[in-house]
């Protein structure tokens, strides 16, 4: 365990020292993967499938605020949908605008959650996100997760009905009605929205409780609750969830949660202390749980650059000015004594 704590501290020190380089690289890779996924899943506008454009936009996102990743992702997806059907693009634009006006405008720090959630759906591991956001976020993070789910299913419905809405301009209202009905009537989306929102809030509430191992209990409870809601909802509404995918997501959510706990909330419950004191108005009952830390070894490296009599002395270099003056005084006194002895 001590070695793991040392590795954790070294990682933290490394990140704090080079974060000015690590964060832009992370944003570049996130934007690059996001744009590649959008082009591969949609791909209706051929000009945006150019890898040069993708690299340039990803590089720009690395130097801009994190909200720029969501902005360029929205623009790319809307451009592809517009190439498919301008009418459907209006629906997508309305969904994006509602997300911005009702939620993202007031909490811009949660923008990456809306980016990552559809990406995890594409990778078939979306069940990690509610547990993670419940651990690192707050109750409002449930709305971030819900917005990410809505974005994914909106684009998913467009892809599923692409053959019915492209190339036919005779029934514009029919195309719009088809997309809206497919989106609102998507039972799977409704079940996922309910499961993710409830799981995020439940994980947050449990990990804030003043009990031992609250983070671990929150992870396990959140993963089980999420699985139960998805399975029961899938049976009731015939949503068609994959049981193996849900179980794999449960295990992965627990592992990712433990990794986050190790870096953010690693405490030693065996050394818990309870303190009681009072003042003029209140009695205080305090429970103190120490963090698990490793004291860094204090290593001193001495540079040896002066030799005397075949041996090297570092103290010679580190002398204070007063010591140097005293040594020069005694050397002059010794020289005068030797000269007097010679005269005698």
Oligomer: single chain
Which structural class do you get from the secondary structure elements? mainly alpha
Give the low-pLDDT segments: 307-312, 328-334
**Secondary structure: number of strands:** 4
Average residue-wise pLDDT: 80
Discrete helix count: 13
What is the rounded Rg? 32 Å
Strand order of the largest sheet: 1-2
Number of domains: 3
Sketch the topology as an H/E string, one letter per element: HHHHHHHHHHHHEEEEH
How far apart the termini lie comes to 75 Å
List the helices and strands and how they pair.
Elements: H1 2-41, H2 51-63, H3 67-84, H4 86-104, H5 111-122, H6 129-136, H7 141-160, H8 162-165, H9 172-184, H10 187-207, H11 214-237, H12 243-264, E1 273-278, E2 283-288, E3 307-308, E4 311-312, H13 321-343
Antiparallel strand pairs: 1-2, 3-4
């Amino acid at each position: 365990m001590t070695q793991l704590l040392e590795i954790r501290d070294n990682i933290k020190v490394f990140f704090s020292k080079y974060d000015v380089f690590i964060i832009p690289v992370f944003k570049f890779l996130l934007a690059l993967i996001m744009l590649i996924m959008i082009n591969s899943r949609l791909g209706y506008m051929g000009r945006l499938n150019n890898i040069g454009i993708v690299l340039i936009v990803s590089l720009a996102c690395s130097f801009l605020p994190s909200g720029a990743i969501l902005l360029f992702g929205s623009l790319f997806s809307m451009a592809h949908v517009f190439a498919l059907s301008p009418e459907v693009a209006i629906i997508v634009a309305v969904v994006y605008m509602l997300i911005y006006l009702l939620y993202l405008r007031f909490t811009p720090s949660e923008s990456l959650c809306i980016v990552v959630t559809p990406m995890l759906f594409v990778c078939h591991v979306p069940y990690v996100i509610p547990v993670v956001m419940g651990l690192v976020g707050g109750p409002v993070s449930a709305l971030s997760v819900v917005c990410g789910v809505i974005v994914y299913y909106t684009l998913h419905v467009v892809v599923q009905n692409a053959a019915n809405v492209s190339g036919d301009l005779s029934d514009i209202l029919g195309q719009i009605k088809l997309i809206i009905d497919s989106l609102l009537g998507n039972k799977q989306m409704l079940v996922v929205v309910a499961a993710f929102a409830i799981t995020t809030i439940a994980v947050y509430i449990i990990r804030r409780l003043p009990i031992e191992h609250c983070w671990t209990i929150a992870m396990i409870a959140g993963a089980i609750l999420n699985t139960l809601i998805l399975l029961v909802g899938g049976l009731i509404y015939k949503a068609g969830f994959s049981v193996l995918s849900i179980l794999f997501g449960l295990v992965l959510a627990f592992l990712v949660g433990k990794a986050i706990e190790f870096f953010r909330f690693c405490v030693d419950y065996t050394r818990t202390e309870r303190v009681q004191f009072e003042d003029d108005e209140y009695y205080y009952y305090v429970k103190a749980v120490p963090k698990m830390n490793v004291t860094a070894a204090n290593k001193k490296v001495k540079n040896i650059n002066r030799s005397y009599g075949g041996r090297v002395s570092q103290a010679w270099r580190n002398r204070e000015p007063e010591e140097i003056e005293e040594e020069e005084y005694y050397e002059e006194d010794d020289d005068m004594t030797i000269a007097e002895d010679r005269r005698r």
